[in-house]
Amino acid sequence: MSPKPSSTARSSARAALAAAGRIARRWAPPPRLTVSEWADRFRFLSAEASAEPGKWSTGRAEYQRGIMDAISDPTVETVVVMSSAQVGKTEFGLNLVGFHVHQDPAPILVLQPSIEMGEAWSKDRLAPMLRDSACFRGRVSDPKSRDGTNGLRHKVFPGGHITIAGANSPASLASRPIRVLFCDEVDRYPPSAGAEGDPVALARKRTTTFWNRKVVLVSTPTIAGSSRIETAWRQSDRRRFWVSCPHCDRPQTLKWAQVRWDRDDPESAAYHCEACGAGWSDAERWRAVTRGEWRAEAPGVAAAGFHLSELYSPWRRLAETAADFLAAKDRPETLRVWINTALGEPWEERGEAPPWRRLYDRREDRPPGIVPNGGLVLTGGIDVQKSPGRLECFAWAWGRDRQSWLVEHHVIHGNPYESAVWAAATEWVQQTWRHEAGAELRLARCAVDTGFATLQAEAWARRHPALVVPVKGASTLAAPVFAWSSVREAAARGGPRKRGQRLGLVGGHVITLELYGLLNLDPPTDAERAAGCPYPAGYVHLSTEASEEFCKQLVGDQWIEAKGEWKQAHATEALDGWKYARAMHSLVGLDRWRPAQWATLADELGLPLDATPEAPEPAPDGDGPPPAAPPEPPPAPQKPRMPIRRVGRSSYMSRLGR
């Protein structure tokens, strides 16, 4: 018999086997997992970054499985996700990064709209995931370490790194090889990274050396025709998520047109099957989503594209979506945001202006230069014209529900390079306009065009810093109504001045679409006026000062849908004047005013809050003449009073920048 091994030998053998096992596990290839399988096995949601902290479950939002697995598909290079908010798109972006850190190491670039947003994403979303998911321990160094491998914008791990860049910074897109590119909220990127060109195209160039590269584009859309994510999605295989009706089993995609509720009661909102008409409860809708599937409209296209709306989200009740719609539907700007962020669809409006003759025929018979009842705040716009030289000055009054009134159209003739022209402009902007109720109001803000005689217009605006804003048209269709340019005037020794003059950017595309939509609103009929029916929200009131030429100019631009651009069909001085006045309306914050603020301002100024449509005279009964009105008693003698001159200043007006 062979001698029995000693306990020391047995211990040594066990240690050798354990060491061999560790070596084998370290060198063994990772399991073949998809991104969704990896997330279900290894991902933990952090308490500070998720409303549902704990172990990740793809089944909580089943539609995410198809998106994440497309990223894992070796035959797919580009994945496009056009979606609403509240569907978890940020989380599956984190899963993409986590998968490649743990399972398939590679150099990764995460591109955010700005460096500041990239740093916030790194600190608020990425760092908690790396900390709370145990699989990353030992792979990414502690953020407190001093070896420089775990910075805010650059993290190193075995086999790769994560770089967080801003689309507004060409330096952050400096040449480095990237295999995995994740572009978040691409519709919020600037049109160019400095002077280098389109940031998405620049980032794509970093992936050209990798045969197994992955490019993922994610965003809520903005305006049709100028939306990056919409363009990319239309060039993909265009997948939509299909669910089956819990009552008749008919497959369908969820559409907003099938959501219905009782009048003014969004809590009664329910989804109705387009086949059998049965209403679904929220629980039935969520259950149907867990059993749904993705179907491509253009199978065979290389890029995988996904579209999602809030109707699929397990975190949103239909009552909430319906309530948001009711709050947004009466204002084009808020409706646009709702369509983008709730339906995940680009804002589409043909911009078809009403016939100018219709505007001319509906003018209101009121004297020019008088602010009518309902108008509480004045803003102005000055359009600088080259030939013949002149300044076209427009004063518009604004009231509750964003109604607007043309108060005055004044032309200052002369060469804009001459100081006398700007002296006359000073007199115009500093004057007061008499209100129908007796007060006198001043302009809250006035925008001046800097497209011609630029230095003269800017110098004049500098002399009136609390009143006049130099502006120019924004360069992108997706630009907001008003935004400040980041460029300030230079200091004497070079470099920007801390308190230098800034230029305002006017989103002409958005404003023109809004104006044309408002000009298509109908005023109350005679019967409705007799019943006291108000004008619709946003109604544009034109006085008899609006000539035929003025009405033609107000609708002088036409939107060419096929080309995705504006074509000038007539002179547009009146249109530009409204754009500038509307931009100032946004600048002083009137878009955010609540009804109570308008009521308080009207009370402080002693002015009527609303414009009351004049009712027509009642028709006489029978065929005879109308009955004579009873004689009015003679007025009681009153003590003569001096007229009160009220200038529009109040606690609210002080917030308008005066």
TrEMBL record:
Gene3D superfamilies, per database record: P-loop containing nucleotide triphosphate hydrolases
Region (Disordered): 608-658
Bias-annotated ranges (Pro residues): 615-640
Molecular function GO labels: ATP binding; ATP hydrolysis activity; endonuclease activity
Pfam families: GpA_ATPase, GpA_nuclease
Domain Phage terminase large subunit GpA ATPase: residue ranges: 50-294
InterPro entries tied to this protein: GpA_ATPase (IPR046453), GpA_endonuclease (IPR046454), P-loop_NTPase (IPR027417), Phage_lambda_GpA-like (IPR008866), TFA_Chaperone (IPR051220)
Domain Terminase large subunit GpA endonuclease residue range list: 304-592
Family matches, as PANTHER family: PROPHAGE TAIL FIBER ASSEMBLY PROTEIN HOMOLOG TFAE-RELATED, PROPHAGE TAIL FIBER ASSEMBLY PROTEIN HOMOLOG TFAE-RELATED-RELATED
Official protein name in the record: Phage terminase large subunit family protein
Species annotation: Roseomonas acroporae
